[in-house]
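ZP: hey, is the NAP complex queued? I don't see it on the tracker
AM: it wasn't, my bad. submitting now with these inputs:
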Amino acid sequence: MPENPESRTAIVTGAARGIGAGVAKRLASDGFKVAVIDLDESACAATVDAIVSAGGAALAVGADVSDAASVDAAVERIVSELGPPTVLVNNAGITRDNLLFKMTVEDWDAVMAVHLRGSFLMTKAAQKHMTEAKFGRIVNLSSTSALGNRGQVNYSAAKAGLQGFTKTLAIELGKFGVTANAIAPGFIETEMTAATAERLGVDFEDFKKFNAEQIPVARVGQPEDIAHTVSFLVSEGAGFVSGQVIYVAGGPKD
Ligand code: NAP
């Protein structure tokens, strides 16, 4: 356990909006000082303002998680302005969907760079602060697409890759008090799923309704559904839960 729980610092990547913003706000209300990372620092203002006006502490940090120098500078700044991080949520993500025969090498590489290289770089930079504290919590955002999804050969490979990444982190870091788990969301209402509807030429409300009909709990997910699961996984009491993939998808996935 951290020596001073009041000084806990969490990093959430891709937290300007969507799931990342929901997670950042939840962790702030759980008592963490939250570093809100996104590509554009000014885009983080809405998340940071919401946290601060609710009485929490947050820092906007502009960084590209796929760039090593950018990641190292971001983590250094977080350490000096908020304190050493003991929680990392690798949430930043992009889609570049297309059928395999039409997918460009650039679209393959872009998705791998943000999800896989980004999570690797962020985790490498943050983990030394966790091992020094003998306490840490890493949560990686996978997806039900890891099980295969038409038009997402790049994204599904990256999201399946994150599951292997997570399990290996759990094996390597467990003896330092650091857990690593993955959350695999199903359909969550964000700009990412809105963009998918637009790409398919479907009205977003119709798209949500269609998806909700396929989901056992009969609704689409919200960022708060993922934030709640993150809150559990990063809690001190979850120290015996590691290397797991939790599907937060409103029903069973195989
Ligand atoms: P979103 O609304 O598109 O938000 C993703 C955020 O990540 C954006 O603010 C984006 O910034 C940022 N980002 C992209 N590339 C980045 C980079 N290189 N460095 C730093 N930040 C970067 O997506 P979301 O729906 O909240 O998804 C969040 C995570 O959950 C992703 O990993 C996604 O794959 C996963 N997920 C989502 C769903 C879903 O149904 N929504 C389901 C399963 C998994 P810009 O706006 O500047 O691009």
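AM: back. Residues 105-133 form the longest helix (29 residues).
ZP: great, adding it to the tracker
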